[in-house]
Amino acid sequence: MLQLATAGHEQFRVSTIEVDRKGISYTIDTLRSIREEFPTDELFLILGTDAWNKFSEWREPQKILKLAIPLIVSRPGSDVSFDRLAELCDAQCLMEIKAAQIDGLPLIEISSSKIREAVSRGSSIRYLVPRPVEMYIFTHRIYGSAPK
Description:
mainly alpha
């Protein structure tokens, strides 16, 4: 689906690191693999506020913060808090994370869980995902039934 979503956009490259890895895949493992491939690049980890709010429970969150700067994308009705970072990184790290945040993004109420829920109900997901992805999901009956 990522290949379908990014087709025709040469600036994107779909990585299969997690698919190719055997067993459970954790973010820290993926970031380590990316760091090996791109040792000098600055890495960012884009997270919705729902994932960010549980970040401290992830596997090795302190090490994740050493490999990538999290960019938190707000959703309508949710606030981004950096309070828990004090236990995960020092003041310099916290300052870098806060400075990297992007303000003024349009708040769009789309999430993968809402898309899966809509598909399982048989509702349309048009305009929520690229058209080729929508067709793939319904053609292969991923997440549920075809739209009504």
